[in-house]
Amino acid sequence: MSLVDVTRKDFTAARRSRALWAVATLLGLLTAFIAFGFSGYRMSPTETVQQLFRTMGGVLALLVPIVALVASYMSIAGERESGGVKFLLGLPNSRRDVFLGKLVSRLTIVGAGVSFMFATATAMAVARNGVLPLGALAGIFAVTLVYAAVFVGIAVALSAMVAERSRAIAAAVGSYFMLVLLYVIPGVNVALLIRFVHQRMLGFEPNFDLYNAVLYTSPLIAYRKAMNLAVPSGMERQVLQRPTEEYALPGYLGDEISLLVFAVWLGVPLAIGYLRFDGADL
């Protein structure tokens, strides 16, 4: 066997999962429902569809990580728990073949799921409005695929570090809480915690650039910033904090930096996960 064989075998096994099919179907129906119910106030049909997908991005920011984590959290941990990894490595395959094969397989599966969600929403939006703003849609779709790939990479990396189902579940749930929920829960989110520690506990003057820089380390915030790169001018949204409307964010907090944040979250966890898997006692 080889990297291609590992990928094909894992993809065939994963696509038979009823849980994945159920999640993909439910989310496809959800995006179709959002597209059916959305209407732009005093907007042209093209602007309505563009605004629909811009709004849908806020929903996908919360849902796409769930899809990626559910599809990937047992990718390697399941093989280790069942003993199947020894069979894979005895064919022979290298640990790199197994790791990369699982990664490519899960990226393909999640990419197909995201494509299905966009397809259902696009079909409904075109049916209702009669237009297809291909440029904005393609940009939002591409950004969402990268966002999904980040969480697939995180899930596969975490799965490579553990050998039990319970730990894989705990790692997946913990990563979703730390990287997504902790940035959106009112009253206890990261923005408030940073300000509390910096101003109340340490006694420093407010520093919004510092707060924003810490916030920008989240893939969720990076996704919201990257959406501004994909939508037409005038539909950009303010993501980071500003003390006044006239305040200009420094260059290192610009929308383009979101691509660097994605690259770091995609590369670093995978490197750590592979090194841990390569040195693990299987």
Automatic annotation (TrEMBL):
Keywords: Membrane, Transmembrane, Transmembrane helix
Any Pfam family: ABC2_membrane_2
Domain of life, source organism: Archaea
Coiled coil: none
TM spans (from-to): 20-41, 53-76, 103-127, 139-163, 175-197, 257-277
UniProt xrefs under PANTHER family: ABC TRANSPORTER PERMEASE, ABC TRANSPORTER PERMEASE PROTEIN NOSY-RELATED
Protein name listed in UniProt: ABC transporter permease
Species for this entry: Haloarcula saliterrae
